[in-house]
Design a protein that fits this description.
The structure holds two protein chains of two kinds. By secondary structure, chain A is an alpha/beta fold. Helices cover 38% and strands 20% of the residues of chain A. In chain A, helix 3 packs parallel to helix 4. The termini of chain A are far apart. Chain B has a single domain, classed as 3-Layer(aba) Sandwich (Rossmann fold). Chain B has eleven helices and five strands, in the order H-H-E-H-H-H-E-H-E-H-E-H-E-H-H-H.
Chain lengths: 326, 355
């Protein structure tokens, strides 16, 4: 066992897949000689050569399109978005071309688009986004969003091996903040489509993913200490396909559910989860399904503004307390 | 008027030897593909009028020459070169081995069609035969074909990609991004830019400020040439040169083919925005099939009766294909839930469907 950060775990996963499978290659902006804006691919070009770690022009549509073409030909490309905010420049290519390829034309397109997402880092409107809701709505794409170092590694490996196109969202606030003991020399894979019970409880469930898993765990700890509440935390890990069974299990166990995510509220993932619970587990509910999310504004830069807009641990504590008393 | 301006390159005078080292059999084969394209489209028009074609019908009338000739310059056969056709490149697909019955089934949304009723017109593919169907978002195939050509380069395979782009689609961001990416990576990609005068109803002067699309190549640091797109042999020779250059590792090459779209955007479009005399001129004076036939006969490379025999064979082939599929069933509705993902392979119908 060795202690590794979330970022190092992701790096290891990529490295191992590059070593394991010659079809895997990386393309993106500054990924080669420079090693990536966050150094996720540092040392890769030296080890695997410039042909497998390709520095591209600033052209997200070309990066994703070229990855799709290569994937059709049997390669396993991993495309990096320097910040995930720029994935919107490839929205057409992802939603119209990549997502539909298998369905409309029987084309295999096994590829991964990954990049740093998320706020709490004073990145402002264009270096803090969470794009999952835009792609949740598009049939044909899978979306994974690891919260732990173990899953950062396990999900990048599983995504590269998956036969469908996968959007892999990595939270930059977690990059160097999360450390975990990971086994060495073991093929660590996290199955796509399976949620993880991050904390067991019986009074109330928090369903969440990404950075807010950690904020939910902090809140659960505080609620246990201050209120004697037993809070369960479910880390979804994969958003498409969503693990409905795990969600309904926790709802049936605690009968109260708070959905927490960092992305904005309207049209967000929480609304979809609430609808599923309503359809599949309505009779088990002892209270309304409530949401804690970002406010519906572009994410501002000033610490006072960002802290106000994004969901904080204290918000989760207050919301959970309100729901527990319902 | 501008569209009647003399083409930048001219046909050579008749000579005893066909250009590009084409044999007599190859010259006849090219003719067969030209005739097959035109006759198949005429059959599709008939089926469209009988409401058997379910969606829109797109004609390549007037553009068959550049489609067939450019595709004919590729290496064909299992796992050889790959092209990405547009809706007016039916001829290119036929050259690469698409069968008329697949085209007919696709237009009629048949279960047995190449996309099993999911997609329209010529939007389908067979990568082993060497064609990758477009999507409707114009320009997107340029980055995708850049990725296919990149794969050839990474694997050290001596294969070439070819992508078509319409004059209007050169205005898209994906065209720019894809061409720039391909040029920087020096991938073996040939770009056929079709100057056919009309992007739906928009003429080139409202689309871009250059005169020739070949000028755009300069911005990407790759060669660009303009060819008379209705001169079949000129297109073949220019494409052959670009393809071999790409195969030898010299990267991207842009070929602009000056041609003309003689029908509306699709069959529903009455072309009221097109001057009638302009259409007449292109039909009478600059039809690519007429010009090719004239050249073949004047040069005495082939005989009239050989062409007639091909016409008859082609018609019989299309009659047979039509008869074989026109009454086939459409796909069952619930097959719509298959194949969105590799895994899960089938999705579940909504709850109210089992009430």
């Amino acid at each position: 066992m060795a202690e590794v950060t979330y970022l190092e775990a992701l790096r290891q996963g990529l490295w191992e897949e590059m070593e394991r499978d010659p079809r895997v290659f990386i393309l993106g902006e500054d990924v080669g000689a420079y090693g990536g804006a966050f150094k996720v691919t540092e040392g890769f070009a030296k080890q695997f050569g410039e042909e497998r770690v390709i520095d591209t022009p600033i052209s997200e549509a070309a990066i994703v399109g070229a990855a799709a073409g290569a994937a059709h030909m049997g390669m396993r490309p991993v495309a990096e978005m320097q910040f995930i905010d720029f994935i919107s420049c490839a929205y057409d290519m992802l939603t119209n071309y990549v997502a539909t390829a298998r369905y409309r034309a029987g084309l295999a397109t096994p590829m991964v688009v990954r990049g740093p997402c998320g706020g709490y880092v004073r990145g402002g409107p264009f270096h803090s986004q969470n794009p999952e809701a835009a792609f949740l709505h598009t049939p044909g794409l899978k979306i994974v969003y690891p919260a732990t170092a173990r899953d950062a590694k396990g999900l990048i490996k599983a995504s590269i091996r998956d036969d469908d196109p996968v959007i892999y969202l990595e939270h930059k606030w977690l990059y160097r903040r999360i450390k975990e003991q990971l086994p060495e020399g073991e093929d660590l894979l996290t199955p796509i489509g399976e949620a993880r019970l991050a904390r067991e409880g019986k009074d109330l469930s928090i369903v969440t993913y990404g950075a807010t898993v950690w904020k939910a765990l902090e809140a659960a700890e505080q609620l246990a200490k201050d209120d004697g509440l037993s809070v369960e935390v479910l880390d979804l890990r994969t958003l498409v396909p969503m693990d409905d069974a795990a969600i309904m299990r926790t709802v049936e166990k605690t009968n109260k559910v708070l959905i927490v995510h960092e992305d904005t509220r309207t049209g967000g993932v929480a609304g979809e989860i609430a609808a599923r619970i309503n359809e599949q587990a309505f009779a088990w509910l002892d209270g309304p399904i409530m949401r804690v999310t970002a406010h519906d504004v572009p994410l501002p830069y000033a610490p006072t503004l960002e802290d106000f807009v994004l969901p904080q641990t204290e918000d989760i504590v207050k919301a959970a307390r309100w729901l527990a008393a319902y | 008027m501008a569209s009647r301006a003399a083409p930048t390159t001219h046909s050579r005078p008749p000579s005893a030897v066909a250009p590009g080292g084409l044999t007599r059999d190859q010259l006849l084969e090219i003719y067969r593909y030209l005739r097959l394209t035109r006759t198949l489209e005429e059959r599709l028009v008939a089926l469209y009028r009988q409401s058997k074609v379910i969606g829109g019908l797109f004609r390549s009338l007037g553009q068959e020459g550049e489609s067939v000739a450019s595709a004919y310059a590729l290496d064909r056969g299992r796992n050889r070169d790959i092209l990405s056709p547009l809706i007016r490149n039916l001829g290119s697909m036929l050259v690469m081995g698409a069968e008329p019955i697949q085209i007919l089934r696709q237009y009629m949304a048949k279960a047995e069609g190449p996309t099993h009723g999911r997609e329209l017109n010529v939007h389908f593919n067979d990568l082993e035969r060497g064609y990758l169907g477009q999507i409707s978002h114009l320009g997107d195939m340029v980055p995708v074909m850049a990725g296919i050509a990149l794969t050839f380069k990474l694997r050290g395979e001596r294969r070439v990609g070819l992508v078509y782009i319409g004059d209007g689609a050169t205005s898209t961001g994906t065209f720019h991004e894809g061409l720039n990416f391909a040029a920087v990576q020096r991938v073996p990609l040939v770009v056929i830019a079709e100057y056919n005068r009309w992007a739906y109803s928009t003429p080139p002067e409202k689309q871009f400020a250059v005169t020739d699309l070949a000028e755009k190549a300069k911005a990407y640091g790759v060669p660009g040439v303009t060819v008379d797109g209705n001169d079949v042999l000129a297109v073949y020779e220019a494409t052959r040169f670009a393809v071999e250059r790409a195969r030898d590792g010299h990267g991207v090459h842009v070929i602009e083919v000056k041609t003309y779209r003689r029908k509306g955007h699709a069959e529903h479009d009455d072309q009221h925005y097109v001057p009638k005399d302009e259409l007449d001129w292109w039909a009478k004076e600059n039809d690519p099939v007429d010009r090719y036939v004239k050249r073949l006969l004047q040069s005495e490379w082939v005989e009239q009766r050989e062409l007639q025999a091909i016409d008859e064979q082609t018609k019989a082939e299309i009659d047979q294909a039509t008869d074989a599929c026109v009454d086939e069933p459409l796909p069952p509705g619930d097959s719509a839930l298959e194949g969105v993902y590799a895994n899960p392979a089938v999705l579940t119908p909504h709850w109210y469907r089992s009430l």
